[in-house]
Amino acid sequence: MAVAGLGHVTTAYLASHFVSNTTEAFFQDLLRNDTADYLANIATWADTIRYTRWGHFTGIFHFIDAEDDPPSYCGVELDRDCKEEGCVVTALANYTQRALDPELSAWERNQAARFVVHFIGDIHQPLHDEDVSRGGNGIHVLWEGKEFNLHHVWDSSIAEKLIGGARRRPYDNAKRWADGLAEEIKTGKFADEKAEWLKTVDFNDVVGTALSWAREGNAYVCTHVLPDGPHEIVGQELGGAYYEKAASVIELQVARAGYRMAAWLDLIADEFEANKIQQGDWQELQYGH
Q1: E strands along the chain, which residues?
Q2: What is the pLDDT of residues 148-179, one digit of tens each?
Q3: Domain coordinates of the chain in residue numbers?
Q4: Residue 284 reports pLDDT greater than 60
Q5: Name one GO molecular function term (predicted).
Q6: How far apart are CA 195 and CA 185, in angstroms?
Q7: CATH of region 3-287
Q8: Which of 21, 121, 231, 263 has the highest count of CB atoms within 10 angstroms of its CB?
C-alpha cells in the first residue's frame, strides 16, 4: 500500500468501529470478506483502477474543482465546480444509488460500495475540494528538506508524521490510528462534537450531503492549506510550524470521514434490506401462494 492510502485505510478501519452489526454482516457478504479488514482492504481500490484502461473514466470522480480564490474566498458551487462528466459530489451520490440497486449484480454493487468508501475519504481532504493548481498538485514545496507537491503533503506526509511514520506495516499503523481515533470519538476530545458531524447527513438528499462535506473541507484551504495564498507557499518548508497547524485538521477530517462513513454505510444496508422486504411483500401480494 502506498503511503497515500494511509488516510483511506484509517477511515475505513474507523468506520468499522461504528457500523451496526447488521451493516457489518451486510458489507462483509457484499465484499466477500468476513474479516475485520473488510472495509480497509477495499479502501484504496478506487485509486488503483483509475489508471487502468477500463477505469480511467473514474479519475475525475475523486475531486471537485472549486473555482474560488483562496485565501480571500473559499467556497464550492455545484453548478460552477462540478464538471459535466462528474465530480466527487455527484459520484458519491451515483455510487450510493448503485449500491442500493437490486437490479444490479452483486459484483456491480460490490464495486459501488468500494467507490462509496473511497469517495467519502476523498471529499474530506481539503485539496480534493479545490481547483488551484490542480488541487495543489502544481505547487511545489519542501517537506523536511525534500521537494514534494502540496497535494502529496496533504494526502500523505502530514498524516504519516502525525502517527510517527507509516512506511513499515502501513495497515497496522492505519488500524492503530483508527483505534485511537475511535476512543477519542467515543469518550475523548471528539465525544462532544460527534453528534454535530452527523447533522449534515441526509439520505434523502445525497448530493446535498456530499456538497456540505465538500464545502466543509474546502473552507480549510483558506484557513490552513493556503493561508497566505498559492504563490507565497511555493518552495516553503512545511514540516515545522505549518505542520503543527495542519495536523489537527487532518486528524479531525479523518475522524469525521470515518464516523460519517459508518453512518452512511448503515443507511445503505438498512435501505437495501428494507427495499428487499418491501419487494418481497409486493411479490406476495401480486402472485400470492
Answers
A1: 140-143, 146-149
A2: 999 999 999 999 999 987 667 789 999 999 99
A3: 3-287
A4: no
A5: metal ion binding
A6: 10
A7: 1.10.575.10
A8: 121
